[in-house]
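Pasting as-is:
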Amino acid sequence: MRLTSKGRYAVRAILDLTFNSNGRPVRLQEISERQKISLHYLEQLFRRLRKGLVVKSVRGPGGGYVLSRPMDEISIKEVLISVGENINPARDLVGTGDVKSDTVEFVLTKTYFENLGLIMQEYLTTTSVGDLVRKARGTQELPKSASSLLDLDALQPTSTTVTTGQPNVGKGRDLS
């Protein structure tokens, strides 16, 4: 599997949309500016994401894009497939069928990559947009731009006394 910029940008754009929607449509121009992805390229990606039923468009003033379903119901696999990403590592190895080989090495290699493909498919299917959002919200080290979007007040240490008798104010909490 070779994940192209198309797949990476699609996942980034969907995460940006999720972080910034707050129940309102998000314009592609905003995503383009925050993610440094060409507006023209985002338009192409979102056309495919809309056809893949990952997002829906809202027309008119204040329009833009929103997720078509709750974030926990949209898998990363859906996002990648919607934009035409190849998520089967054995596809290139097996080829179109005109190349046949019955050597032990070919069969072992083919079987190995088919099994790897099944594992990857399962991982991508069971990882939702919501899973990645929750992971980001639980991460200590985020870029400042991402940190400002998250509700980090819930993650900040409180002013309590620890066993040393010293206040815990200003000390970072290990969230890993």
